[in-house]
# Entry
Amino acid sequence: MNYIDYTDIEFLLIAGAIYLFIAATVAKIGTYRACGGIKAFIISIILTPVIGIIYALISPQKHLIKTVHYRCPNCGLEYVSKHKYCPSCAKEEKYCRLVKVSMKTY
Ligand SMILES: [Zn+2]
# Structure
């Protein structure tokens, strides 16, 4: 009767964990690409991460523009540059701190 070799199971678990970790890394690369993270992840699982990483890298990069605005909670005006207080409200002697708003556009 054969006995179960636990070292083999442990090895498979570690290998599986590493495999998933690499696939997740590929997925992260994929999120910045046109193919998308989920697609890169699935390809990494099915066709090995080597294929997945090539697939993610040949896929064109997303045009990600990160814009930062500073919005006044009092009057609702938005500023591109940073001010300590809202310049519009400061004229009326109301010192409103601006709220940083960051947006990602593709
Ligand atoms: Zn204001």
Observations:
- Residues 72, 74-75, 77, 86, 88-89, 96 surround zinc ion (CB under 6 Å).
- Residues 6-58 form one domain.
- The first helix runs from residue 6 to 31.
